[in-house]
Structures are given as structure tokens and as C-alpha cells.
């Protein structure tokens, strides 16, 4: 055994023996530590929280929109209504005629506007300028693609710069400014 | 379990029993007995590898957690302490990696401030030799500690670490050479 090996052994025992001779602590509980570490520890925690929050918000928004549209918590209700509307539109058309898209998209637009209104009511709206846009996009998603052209000709809410009737400022007479002498 | 090489004569720690303890894989009381019998020796290894006692204690608990999770699959034909040391060294390697990341973050966070020193009560009086050992690459330091503190043979270290015996010899030679260079001998 070389000098350095002998010195190494002596040094390791001199330093490590007193430290490792401390009382043996109780063994750490595996379950509690592991669960906490998984849920709260590391960089994954932030991602986990974000994902869970996103899922919760999306689920809440879908529930609110569904209930506002159909009046029911069951998402199948909306599908049933669309099916019913499609069959009604078919029966209104003459045999062999086309154009069911306009008929169905009108129905979809009405419900799209209702969804947008409900979303805005729950804090998801982007102001009055987006009301028509939200409604239209929902309508497009549930129609057969003709609704874009249909909407171009259908000015349900014309764009205007006039203040809304609900604007409290509009209830007051306009201020008059008289130029000074 | 381990061959005697005379290196244990200087040790203060209780010697492992001549007749190896028998453990039943998956047995809760046996694992608790294993914990009591081996904790100090595992802690000694970890102190040399991770440099401070609180971190070593945390790593020791992590070691026994990992061992407990695999306790039912441990095979009694392998020395249980060697198996524990293998887990402990992996835990130490992982901890050192995390320490480097944490230290980089601390340096950025404390730019311009004086860094506080370690708690003197938790750091033993250490010589240049011990500091040099704890700064070796973890695998080399582990081979040194198993050889010169626990008195394992190269074959036992190879079995514990799951590497060829020649690899152990190479690591020990590299570690000794490094120490000689650092200590100027």
C-alpha cells in the first residue's frame, strides 16, 4: 500500500466516522414525499398547474356555452337540434333542389350569437365589436360552408360609430362650448 | 459478504457481521432491519461524494426510498449492501448534477452580494486530501471510498457498480493520480 493510500484511509475515517456515527433518523415516508415531489417540485409543477388550469377553463367555457345555447347540460342536445333543423330544411326544399346550407346556417348563426353573448357575459367577450364575429364563427363551424357568403349579404347589426343606447353618456345633453370673446 | 483486506482495522464504525444478515425480499420488517444495519455506512459514502452532511442525509433517504420501491425485486444472491451502494452512488451523481444547476442559479441571483459560507457545525475539519477526494468525478470518488473506507475489493466494487473489474482499477488509478497531482506529491 502506497503512502497516499494509507493517508487516504486515515483521512476518510477521521472525517467520515464521526459524521456517520450520528443517530439514525427514522426512515422517510415514501408516499407523502413522492406525491409532494411529483405535484409541487421541479419545473413540471408550473406546467402541471397551467395545464390543469387550461383544462378547467376550457371545460367551464364549454359548459357555459352549451347551457346557454341549448338550455341543457347535455352536449348531445345541440347536436339533436341541428339534426332536427337539417331534416326540416330538407323537407322545405323541392325535390332535387340545392341550398340547404343557407337554411341551416341561419339557425347556426342564431345560436352562435347566443353563445357569444353568454361568453361575453361570463367575462370572455371582447367588446361589442366582436359580438357578430363570435356568432359568425360558431355558425360557420356548424354549417356547410355557405354561411360566409350568406353573412356577407346579411347585415344583422350594421357597423356604426354611434354610441350604444346603454352608454350612460348618451343620456346627457351634449356639452356646448362657446368660444370666448 | 465482503472479503477482509485489513483496511477495516482502522475504522470506528461497527464492522459488518461475519455471518451475513439474511433478508427476505419484499419483507417490511426486513427492510427496516436493513435500514438500521446499513444507514451509517451508506451515509459515510454519501458524505464523501456530496460534500455536506444535510445533503448526504437527504441522499441517504432517497437511496432507501429507491431501494424500498425495488425491494420486492431484489435477489438475495447479490450482496444487499453492494446493491444499496449502487443506488446511493446513482443518487449522488444525480444530486451533483442538480447542485451544479443550483449553483449556477445562485451565482446569478447573488451577483454583487457576498456568498454566505457553509454552516461550520455541518462541515467537519477537512484536510486538503479530503477536499480533493470530494472534488473528484463522482464515479472515481465512489471507487476510492468503497476501496479505502469500506474496504471492498475491486471485484466487489465492480459487482456493486455493475461495471467490469478493469474499469474499477482504471478509476482507482485515475483517482490516485489526480490526488497526487492536486496535492503535489
The major pleated sheet of chain B works out as: none
In total, the number of strands of chain A is 0
From the 3D coordinates, which CATH architecture of chain B would you assign? Up-down Bundle
Mean pLDDT of chain B: 82
Give the oligomeric state. Answer: heterodimer
When the domains of chain B are counted, the total is 1
Helical stretch count of chain B? 7
| Cα-based radius of gyration of chain A, to the nearest Å | 34 Å
Strand content of chain B: under 5%
Feature tags:
heterodimer, A: 181 residues, mainly alpha, B: Butyryl-CoA Dehydrogenase, subunit A, domain 3, 7 helices, 0% strand
Describe the structure.
The complex is a heterodimer of chains A (181) and B (185). With 181 residues, chain A is an all-alpha fold. Chain A is 63% helix and 0% strand. Chain A contains seven helices and no strands. Chain A has helices at residues 3-20, 30-40, 44-70, 76-92, 100-121, 131-142, 147-153. Chain A starts with a helix and ends in a 28-residue tail after the last helix. The relative contact order of chain B is 0.14. In chain B, helix 1 packs antiparallel against helix 2 (53-69) and helix 4 crosses helix 7. By secondary structure, chain B is mainly alpha-helical. Helices cover 62% and strands 0% of the residues of chain B. Chain B has a single domain (27-114, 123-183), classed as Butyryl-CoA Dehydrogenase, subunit A, domain 3. At the A-B interface, helix 1 and helix 2 of A face helix 1, helix 2, helix 4, helix 5 and helix 7 of B.
